[in-house]
Amino acid sequence: MSFIDTRKRTSERLTADQEKDLARKIRAAEERARAAIEGLDVAMAILSKRPDRAERTRAGAVDRLEQAVESVWKSSKERPDLKEAGRRAKGAWAEAEALRWTLAMSGRRIAHGEARKLAGPFMDEEDLVQEGYIGLLRAAKRFDPDRDIRFSTYARWWVRAQMTRAIDHTGRPVRLPGCAVEQTRNLRKAIKRFEASGLQYGLSDLADEVGIDKERAELLLSQGSTISLEQPVDDGPRPRSLERFLSDEDAIRPDADAIQSQELGRMQEAFDMVLTERHRFVLTRRYGLRDGEFRTLSEVGKEMGLSRERVRQIEREALIRLREQSQIREAM
Questions:
Q1: Which domain holds residue 269?
Q2: In the listed set 151, 171, 191, which residue is the last one of a domain according to the structure?
Q3: pLDDT 10s digits, 146-203
């Protein structure tokens, strides 16, 4: 996980008016970036493309604008006519990013507070704080200053959603899609509601509550079960545990040993055909082809009565000869 450093770029807690003013400045910087690239073929190929359903949001529009700005900036390195537009768009976008970061970090106390509540065996508090910062940045990208809501209130949902999603993914041997994680969480909430009210419930009741079919509910709830290594995995008079089926990484593998022996034999034939005795001695000692023990240039030099640099030169000559031999064979 990448660490987001907030020690150098932090901001004080903002009032409601300051939050809205900052969000409007972000919008203005984004509009300047859009105006700088408006009408350019490189940018319009991205901006005029019909967005998918998932992109028809404020965040989707910002992402598309960022792609267009980056595309113009890269193209300006080869096309002089785009340099001025690329420079203005890049500058305006950098200003928007800096303002967005300031807005996001004004709610960093939310990330720390939620991390203390959700910290557990799967993720510690520091990792959750980092996930919370990601949630703050997502909230800053989506925040609408014209709505009658505080950024701190709006961002809390995104912070908690990012943290719970990270916990769900980390706490599972197999990562589930986001929709499956959300449905599993809703199933567990439904279970708690039924138990709190003292009502009897079955799998069908849980599925109806969440709005999914019974088979899917059964599958999602089974994902949280843990399998013991001592649990029998086959039927019969003498059932065997899962532990008996796990491979031993340290055990001898005859097939791998046979392949290695064949390759070493072919390598030795190539050595005899292409290399001199001195070349063969250096490579054999350097890479442990006989006894499996690697040696440094200095150690080989002491055995041969040569300097370390001379041994390096001999090794390089030998490798070049072998490479040239392999190229000749491939050409044939």
A1: 258-331
A2: 171
A3: 888 899 889 998 999 888 888 877 766 556 666 776 777 788 888 888 888 888 888 8
pLDDT for position 96: 92
One domain, residues 24 and 71? yes
Q: How far, in Å, CA of 76 to CA of 45, rounded?
A: 15
Query: What's the pLDDT score for residue 31?
Result: 92
Average pLDDT over residues 21-45: 90
119 and 98 belong to one structural domain: no
136/185 same-domain check: no
**Cα(123)–Cα(126) distance, integer angstroms:** 8
Positive or negative, the Cα torsion across 124, 127, 129, 131? negative
DSSP percent split of the chain into helix, strand, coil, nearest 5: 70, 0, 30
**What are residue 26's phi and psi, to 5 degrees?**
-65, -45
CB-based contact 311:282 (threshold 8 Å): yes
pLDDT reading at 253 higher than 70: no
In this structure, are residues 19 and 150 in contact, taking their beta carbons and an 8 Å threshold? yes
Q: Is the full-model pTM beyond 0.85?
A: no
Give me the percent of the chain exceeding a pLDDT of 70.
74
The last residue of a domain, from among 68, 86, 104? 104
Q: Looking at the 3D structure of the chain, how many domains does it have? A: 4
pLDDT exceeds 80 at position 261: no
Q: Are both 42 and 122 inside the same structural domain?
A: no
Q: ∠ at Cα 175 (171, 181), nearest 5°?
A: 80
Q: Say if CB 151 and CB 139 are below 8 A apart.
A: yes
- For residues 130 and 167, is the Cβ–Cβ distance under 8 A? no
Query: What is the rounded distance in angstroms from the CA atom of residue 32 to the CA atom of residue 90?
Result: 10
Name every residue whose Cβ is closer than 8 Å to that of residue 37 and which is 6 or more positions away in sequence.
Answer: 43, 47, 68, 69, 72, 85, 86, 89
